[in-house]
Amino acid sequence: MRALTWHGTNDVRVDTHPDPEIINPRDTIIKITSTAICGSDLHLYDGVIPGMKSGDILGHEFMGEVVETGPKSTLKKGQRVVVPFTISCGQCFFCQQQQYSACDNSNPVEKQDASEMLYGHPMSGIFGYSHLTGGYAGGQAEYVRVPFSDVGPIVVPDHLTDDQVLFLSDILPTGWMAADNAEIQPGDTVAVWGAGPVGLFAVQSAVLMGAAQVICIDHHPHRLELAQKFGAKIINFEETHVREALMEMTGGIGPDAVIDAVGMEAHGFTPDNVLDVVKQKIAPGADRGHALRQAILAVRKGGRVSVPGVYGGMLDKWPLGAMMEKGITIKTGQTHVQKYIKDLLRRIEEGEIDTTFLISHHLSLEDAPTGYRNFHDKQNEWTKVVLRPDMAKGA
After folding, report:
1. C-alpha distance from residue 63 to each of 12, 26, 169, 334, 373 (Å)
2. 394 backbone φψ class: left, alpha, beta (φ>0; ψ -120 to 50)
3. Which of 94, 181, 191, 386 has the fewest C-beta atoms lying within 10 Å of its C-beta?
């Protein structure tokens, strides 16, 4: 089969690989119909996530048709399914608590030592990501093996298009959980850093959850325009002092809740970020946390901080004093996709949530390297790239 593979910083290629096979009874094989490039994939593209190996197949946002099942899979050949990016057994202590992204059994034992040493506990499995998360082959390919297929994939009805449901695999539930973790109350003001795919879905989710005022912060004009379509007010951080603007927009109190949808590759020319950029260039595992620092300083006393943005290593200049003295609450984590996916599918079917506004480009799998380069370099115009293995190259 053909698959997009990682070969180093800013180097992805479409190679030929053996077709995946059933290994365990709960496995299924999916023929990919649509797969997307995620902002998290750009962290791999930039080489800032540890634990990658040359030749790894990328992609953790995908859907397709069931073509083969193991004897204990509950899926049937021919079904259309969306697959959560987190791999979960459904039976361990954490899965039973609906903390699916903390699954204890999906990261193979031989892969757990590195993440246990780095984070204190082994991480769960994730498709198409670092070997810290199991080194599973991803879905930017013609076919993929899906472990624990009786727990993760959700069958989608034929009247919904791939574009309507594909983002149930990651960014829609991630944006929703970000708003859920912000514990939004009716009448709240919520500030969202980052108008990327997760940030825009966090904006949409915060509005649906009853926030009276949602403020989106970014520097890409088109992405800020997309946030405005959901009723958000906007701040361009290249033109406006963010914290002063937020204080003015909240009567001098600060937002009730803030969401950092930027993560480990924050932009800007502030002194802390310039230092972080240098450290990230010379020290793998260093994070750039300017957006998170700004969010913690901006949130009101007693406020809530939600962090869906990805961080993978160590961060200094952490405003611990502000956390303690202001009595704020922080929630973060990889998304418990299986907890949210059925409800979000219902909301899509009923027309409450639209996901298609985000897609700027459809490309063939063979054109994926072009998609990565432009999604990375032209973020104002390339808001989301969907790859279709059945499309002809250059179509």
Report:
1. 21, 18, 8, 19, 23
2. left
3. 94
Kind and range of the H or E element at 273? Answer: helix 271-282
Q: List for the chain the helix, strand, coil content (%; round to 5).
A: 35, 20, 45
Which of 255, 263, 258 shows the shortest CA–CA distance to 334? 263
What does the DSSP assignment read for 291-306? HHHHHHHHSPTT-EEE
Report the distance separating Cα 218 and Cα 39, nearest Å: 15
Asked if 348 and 355 touch (Cβ cutoff 8 Å), the reply is yes
Give the mean pLDDT per block of 10 residues along the chain (395 residues). 97 97 98 96 90 96 98 98 97 97 94 88 94 96 98 96 98 98 96 96 97 97 97 96 97 98 75 69 70 96 95 82 95 96 98 96 97 96 97 87
- The single-letter DSSP state of residue 357 is G
The H helix count followed by the E strand count for the chain is: 13, 18
Task: List the beta strands (DSSP E) in the chain.
Answer: 2-6, 12-16, 28-37, 56-57, 61-69, 80-83, 86-87, 125-126, 143-146, 154-155, 189-193, 213-218, 233-236, 257-260, 304-307, 329-332, 361-364, 385-388
Token couple for 284: 């793998």
Listed residue (64, 85, 30, 17) closest to 388, CA to CA: 64
